[in-house]
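pasting for the record
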Amino acid sequence: MSKSARRYSILDVFTDEALAGNPLAVVLDSEGLSDEQMLKIAKEFNLSETVFVCAPSNPAHNASLRIFTPQLELPFAGHPTVGTAVLLGLEKCAEVKKEMDCMVVLEEKIGLVRCAVKIDPDGCGEAVFELPKEAEPVAMALGSKDEIAAALGLHIEDIGFENHVPTVYSAGVPFAMVPLKNLDAVQRAKPVMPSWNTAFGSHAHNDAFVYSRETVKHTSNFHTRMFAPGMGIVEDPATGSAVAAFSGVIRKFDRPMKGSNAYIIEQGFEMERPSIIHLELDVEGEAIKAARIGGKAVRVASGALYI
């Protein structure tokens, strides 16, 4: 049986430099692949996420996306959305010799995602998309502060700052949001597996997003890390879906002012994969009227899968 050559690209996302940010595999020719094959390909790439680009159900849209970790499929994820939007923009404007703006509309399992994309002819780009779902608190039990500290290899006094306490939020994928008192505590954090399920549950999405207001870069608002052992990801360099959920934390504890509020989230520094994620919140009264995530991406490799 002859095998199809399916094009793919590797991008580094939430960065404008190769070999930084969060690497992403995007398989451009995914028609005819089964769910089992997609999962096996994701395991083959062994990155935090692999995107499979399929024909959209609506021809007015650019593509339908399937997003897989090495362990399971996700309904939505931020760095796959940004990276795929940039890649499709580069493909769409392949012959353009100057900076260009375009709109990319993606069908994801969580819903329709519209991305404003700016591309450069050198293989870099930037995408901003409006969150398809508002961040909401999740009724998911967390362990005590003692148990959370033990699961992160920390002391109980490292947990929390100001009025921030551990919570669970989701904008499509749930995350345990764990505030840590300072940058040093975030840098010392590490998953301790014998204690992990006690603190964060024994389900597939027992992911922890730890954060502090103290940062490495003076231009950033929060320093973060994300651990997801249940998804086969010990640590992720940049997690757009967690930042999407983090908008709920900001709304609850920081109560941003009416109008547009911009935040810069840094992640991946401990992995030597520095990443910068932009979060914008439009606030009306005490509610978030709209939220957007943005970041840069650069294509670092292209090839073909013979499957």
